[in-house]
Write a structure and sequence with these properties.
The protein is built from three helices and 53 strands. The chain has 608 residues and is mainly beta. The longest helix is centred in the first third of the chain and has 17 residues. The N and C termini lie far apart (70 Å).
Length: 608
């Protein structure tokens, strides 16, 4: 027994001594001055060593692009470009970056943290911010409905600008952006104003600007219905292709990544974008704005494309983004033409996925019709030959002797993750709370959602973004939904449907399967709960929907809207406080639909 104990003690001591902690101040990395070059060199010097921690004594560290390592990088759902990096973690194993509560402040179009081809990486306990935000905020102080004009109050210290040739330009670190995409926020709720897409916003709007006094701008634009109300705030953030160049954290072709206790205040793109990465754990991540800004990230708080293993997200806060809280999906890739010999000439479908690693040797893939988005053949990849960032030749183990005479796509069946989202808060952001299209097991529980558009969107898209992943096993339980669709009054807390073009159609068979939405609490001003198209196996049960007076009551769509669905059970749901029983719609091509024991729901004629 003594020998065993001594052996364990010696082993623990050996493991402890193997861990190496490096104080970055010993390498001339100190608060208050540009740390970029010294940090790049320190990171390169520890490559090949494992169990290393780079420890930052608490402070405010500055990073500038002039001396940063540069590489042309393809970043999914962003614009590819030369990226200048502060933390280029390429090929490292067993490395921890520990901020100890430090603030990391970036300047210009930098890519702060890039993890590529790495394993067992932990990023923890720091904040990411930019000295100059990637968006501008202007208060509306007057408006003229007849002239379609608003008077804006500017803050040139925080949001420098110029007016040139009647156009409003944002002045940034070493570039300028013409006013482009825009939205109006309510400073009281710190969220998009009610029904802003239908009334006020006009993306990429033509405009006329002129000075109207000190720090005042008169802006004439073609608003959807009328100029926005006085007191609202115009958020504007540039035009494509320069409006998504600087994500905060980029993970690619890596494994076993932990992000813990990180706050992202700003990004000229997404907070966290991950692709072709296995096993990612987010714990205590915050994407939020500073007190003197209404907006945090330019795009999604988090986004995962073509990943596998387990993505686990817990105890996080996502708010004030200009897009979704998270999106988990694969990619549909176009087949340009068969080349014979089991080869397919393929093309990355969306321009912001160019350069994405779609597949590798040994991956299982499915061929599908682009007309119906339904698969008809599975096979294994034997090789991939990259031609350029858009096209590659995919060689597979076996193809049908006669391929269908219809446009085809390919999806990767190997790179779909399981997903757990637990104990998180999503609120006050443009767009949806979460989008889920993965064939893995999904559990979404004990979260709070309050977003401008759909609460949970389960889609599948061979139309524009080409986001694949018909779901097979999703449980959504014990969550709270507060005023879902406050910016789009006809959006649903739960919306399930493949997105089809006018040339596409539903095929023989259902796209999504096995979804349970149970035990959730909803606060609703419009009485909507779920829309479903092409779903087999849908349970919506034991949910409570309470009428909300936070926004004007509207009744534009049915509470339940089902199209081409099978094996649906809607039972034991309670609707409270609404002025009348709520209606439902079930299409004639839906089968095996059961509605029972629902309180506050109008009688529903169902097809059995």
């Amino acid at each position: 027994m003594i020998k065993i104990t001594s052996s364990i003690t010696l082993l623990c001591a050996a493991l402890a001594s193997a861990a190496e902690i490096i104080n970055v101040r010993d390498h001339d990395i100190t608060p208050g001055k540009d740390a970029t070059l010294a940090l790049n060199e320190l990171i390169a010097s520890v490559k090949g060593r494992s169990d290393v921690t780079l420890s930052f004594p608490k402070g405010r560290y500055l990073f500038y692009p002039e001396n940063a390592l540069e590489e042309h990088r393809a970043v999914s759902n962003h614009d590819n470009s030369l990226k200048r990096m502060a933390f280029p973690l390429f090929g490292h194993k067993g490395l921890t970056i520990s901020g100890n509560g430090s603030d990391f402040v970036f300047h210009g179009r930098m890519s702060p943290v890039v993890v590529k081809g790495a394993e067992k990486i932990t990023l923890q306990d720091f904040t990411i911010n930019w000295a100059r935000s990637f968006h501008d905020e202007y208060e509306v102080v007057a408006r003229d409905v007849e002239k379609s004009t608003v008077r804006l109050k500017a803050d040139p210290e925080r949001y420098p600008y110029k007016i040139k040739h009647g156009q409003l330009f944002s002045q940034n670190y070493d570039w300028e952006d013409k006013m482009g995409s825009n939205i109006f926020f309510d400073p009281k709720t710190r969220a998009p104003i009610y029904n802003t897409p239908a009334h006020y916003v006009n993306f990429w709007t033509p405009h006329e600007a002129r000075a109207a006094g000190k720090n005042l701008i008169d802006l004439k634009a073609k608003f959807r219905k009328e100029p926005p109300p006085i007191g609202s705030v115009l958020i504007t953030y540039g035009t494509h292709p320069t409006s998504r160049l600087s994500q905060a954290i980029h993970l690619s072709n890596s494994k076993d990544i932990v992000l813990k206790d990180i706050t992202i205040y700003e990004a000229g793109g997404m907070g966290v974008i991950a692709e072709r990465t296995e096993n990612i754990h987010l714990d205590g991540i915050k994407v939020t704005s500073l007190d003197d800004r209404l907006v945090s990230t330019r795009a999604d708080a988090t986004h995962f494309i073509g990943c596998k293993g387990l993505i686990k997200m817990e105890n996080c806060l996502f708010e004030h983004m200009l897009d979704d809280a998270t999106n988990v999906h694969g990619a549909y890739v176009k087949v340009v033409e068969p080349l014979g010999k089991n080869q397919l000439l393929c093309e990355i479908s969306h321009f912001q996925q160019w350069g994405f690693t779609f597949a590798g040797e040994g991956d299982r893939v499915a061929l599908l019709s682009r007309e119906t988005i339904l698969p008809f053949h599975e096979t294994k990849v034997t090789s991939v030959k990259k031609l350029n960032e858009r096209r590659f030749i995919l060689t597979v183990d076996q193809l049908p002797e006669n391929l269908p005479d219809t446009p085809l796509s390919v999806e990767n069946l190997t790179w779909y993750p399981d997903f757990i989202m637990r104990n998180n808060i999503v609120r006050e952001n443009r767009a949806r709370s979460i989008l889920i299209t993965t064939k893995g097991k999904v559990l979404i529980e004990n979260n709070s959602f309050s977003s401008q558009m759909h609460g949970i969107l389960i889609e599948g898209d061979n139309k524009y973004w080409y986001e694949s992943g018909a779901v097979k096993d999703i449980i959504i339980r014990n969550n709270t939904f507060v005023n879902s669709s406050f910016g789009h009054t006809d959006n649903y807390p739960l919306f399930i449907a493949p997105m089809l073009t006018k040339d596409q159609r539903l095929g023989e068979g259902h796209y999504h399967r096995n979804i349970r939405f149970t035990g959730n609490t909803l606060k609703s001003f419009n009485g909507l709960l779920a829309h479903a198209t092409s779903v087999s196996g849908l349970e919506i049960s034991n949910n409570t929907v309470e009428f909300s007076t936070d926004y004007p009551a509207v009744r534009e769509k049915p509470t339940f809207d089902l199209h081409y669905c099978d094996a649906v059970r809607v039972q034991n749901n309670i609707f409270k406080g609404f002025s009348e029983p709520l209606p439902s719609h079930i299409s004639k091509d839906s089968t095996n639909i059961v509605f029972k024991k629902n309180t506050g729901l109008a009688p529903t004629s169902v097809k059995k």
